[in-house]
Amino acid sequence: MARIAGVNLPNNKRVDIGLTYVYGIGRYIAKCILDKTGIDAAKRCVDLTEQEVAKIREVIDADYKVEGELRRIVTMNIKRVTDLGCYRGLRHRKGLPVRGQRTHTNARTRKGKAIPIAGKKIATR
């Protein structure tokens, strides 16, 4: 089992898909990493040799911020705008959508489950 940046890559997946299990690596970055190392993207994770895994680790360590370091950076950026008290920071603080989405309807992922208001009825005529 290949272990990269503290994440076990799934054995039955192709290498380019398996790399996306690492936080901070998507499809495009995975393809770039494999191009730099010269590893075939169609190869399965279980078929990787120790040398190939070491090459991938070296490229990731040298060129990309992933996992804990990236999570820390994102958290610090959110904390910075929250402490500034700017509009984005206030939206983070209140748990509302930050990037201009509507909140009259939808936004349930960010706002949480709808809370019924007692005594409120829709007037029908």
Q: How large is the radius of gyration?
A: 22 Å
Biggest sheet strand order reads 1-2
By DSSP, the count of extended strands is 2
Query: Would you tell me the structural class of the helices and strands?
Result: mainly alpha
Helix and strand string, N-terminal first? Answer: EEHHHHHH
Gap from first CA to last CA: 66 Å
Runs in which pLDDT lies below 50 for 5 or more consecutive residues are: none
The biggest beta sheet is recorded as: 2 strands, antiparallel
Looking at how many chains there are and whether they match, the oligomeric state comes to: single chain
- In DSSP terms (H or I, runs of 4 or more residues), the helix count works out at 6
Average per-residue pLDDT, rounded, comes to: 90
Helix content bin: 40-55%
Rough outline: elongated
**What amount of the residues lies in strands?**
under 5%
Structure description:
It is a single chain. With 125 residues, the chain is mostly helical. The chain has helices at residues 15-18, 27-37, 50-63, 67-84, 87-94, 108-111; strands at residues 3-4, 7-8. It has a two-stranded antiparallel sheet with strand order 1-2. 14% of the residues are buried. The model has no long low-confidence stretch (mean pLDDT 90). Helix 2 (27-37) crosses helix 3 and helix 4 packs across helix 5.
